[in-house]
Amino acid sequence: MGIRRPAISTAVAAALIGSFSVPIMAGSASAEGSAATVREDFNGDGYQDIAVAAPGAQVGGHTWAGYIAITYGSAQGLDPARTTVIHQDTPGVPGASGDNHVFGYDMIARDLDGDGLTDLALVTRDYQPEANVSGSVIVLWGRTTGISGQDAVRIKAPANAQVGADITAGDFDHDGHVDLFMGNGEEYDYHDVLYGPLRRDGSPAREQQLLVYSTDNTINTTAAGDFNGDGIEDLATFYVYENHAEGGKLWLGTEDGLSTVPQRLNSAASAAVADFDQDGYADLATRIFPNGDTENEEDSGTVKIYYGSPSGPSQTRTRTITQNTAGVPGVSEKSDQFGGRLSAGDANGDGYPDLAVGVPGEAIGSKAKAGAVVLLKGGQGGLTGTGAQAFHQDTTGVPGAAESGDVFGGSTRLLDMTGDGKADLIAGAPGENLGTIVNGGAVWLLRGSTSGLTASKSVAENPVDISALATKALFGENLSGDNGPGVAIP
Question: Quick check: pTM over 0.85?
């Protein structure tokens, strides 16, 4: 029996031959529920931390082996001196680096064992021939001394399994422990819910197998949050087949775990979750597929918000936002891909979560696909264009300069790394060239402030800064806790 792999968009296919682009179909995605309460503090020092993936990096002579870089928060934000690089050749990490493993191409950061420290679950596409298993979920445990390979564990899988696809976290049974949803079944139609807490050998407290497919569809995006306000997180899964969007499903959380009879949802290309209007219901922010076409690289981009309600994401109380919406900087243009990445967090500290919208295809002047990020602000009425802000590498105060193909905003994350109570923006530009190094990639931190995001005191980090492998590394292609990978399996 073969192993089914995610579909590869034409944009990603181009990346594999050296022309980098961010696809509209971003593969499986993990969007955090309860964004205001989830902490990402791997060493427990009170500052939130970030894991950055470099899935294209060569490690040990293997192409597309990949590594991750964990940067610990501080009052200064990103700091190369406080960054640790981990790959499959790091002592303690299961397996070994290999061609096309793309180590860390999908990641979720949560406290999986309940010890108060954030752990990191990440996906690698290694192959275990003895069991015909494709892919692994590897857990790196949080420690007061920082994450390393020490005691890292590979979550066990049955024979003939495709492991790790669509990894998502939430408390789906309301017992106070984080649960993992992930591909881990003998039959491709099934996924597992691993109910927490995880033991240090990677085994869960209990398991549930969920029939997520009814056809040959593939999950392209997932999201978790308490959409119906009952205090239990729910799971949304969205589907594609070849180049067609195939809708979504809502699996309600219950005291016994996820329901097995889903509700129907509209399609989504990417997703983020937060209670943007603070009415007690988690809201679902999505990027829509234009005309159901998952490979329309010329799409300008549209973000649609479904506000939570007692029955889940509302089909009647919605809001659609584009770059032509009043107050949003810029204009909708071909190939902008507004909403290519989405992340929620409270950047101005007013108690209402905001939404960082990646616009990786945005042209800055004559520089095609230089990329940008737009911040939409939450409030009593939810997300609007009022007071929206835009940032790119030619924004005054942002290090570097915009160049064609940088795809700034190719990953986005809002979290408070500086510890001042306001979410900072971490933005990736995986197509950033570092001198003569092509597609080395980089990430930036823009601080939160009472007026929103600010470029003042913003900092950047790239593989050269941390003495890591840089050539075609695509550093910043994915961030822990953002809404999923933009790179497909080569």
Answer: yes
